[in-house]
Amino acid sequence: MREKYFLELSRRLQERGIESSVIADKRLEVFLHSQPVLYVSPASDVFLLPAGSQNEEASELYHQVAMDADEVYSYVETMQNAPLLHASGLHADFRLLADFGGAVLAGQERENGQGYQFVTWIWDYDRTGVSHGHYYEDNFQSAKQDFAVRSGLIPRAQLFSPEELTELYRATDHFLEEGPELDYKQQKAIQEARTKIEYTVPDLQSRLEQVQSQEPQMNL
To answer: What CATH class does 2-80 carry?
Structure first.
């Protein structure tokens, strides 16, 4: 579990342009400007190193790494303990992660450390085969949401799309800067909502930058 966890987390961080290295199979150190500033434990806890203290860039990196560390640990552990999915017509090994209301959530570990794929299916009427697959590359969160909807656990209307969450996040930016003065309880509620959006939309920053670049620029 530890080796797979560090390997997958390192791969995910590398995709974001974040350098990391496993130290004696005991922790994953994360680098900023070629210097280790924090590390991740085998239990997904994230700690700042002395070089990362009192460093704004390191604090931002900590937030990003903590979200990835938590998500990766969740699906690597789940995959590790899940049984094989037995269904006719499957040409690859998938692990059965959840089964409810006629829907299936499954996962596949790719070879050579190439990450994970998740998929939701609908059982055939006799529960011997599955069909109508929705596939998610390295996106466990979206796969879980899709399963919750397809299985009937959550009405689709209760879920926000990444685009909707991005706009809500932008709206809170404006509200906090330009809106009326808020008391502590209101500020805390908004900040907690913003943190949830940051966790739910991993590419939030790039989405915000894209929206901003598409807005008409005012001539000064």
So the answer is: alpha beta
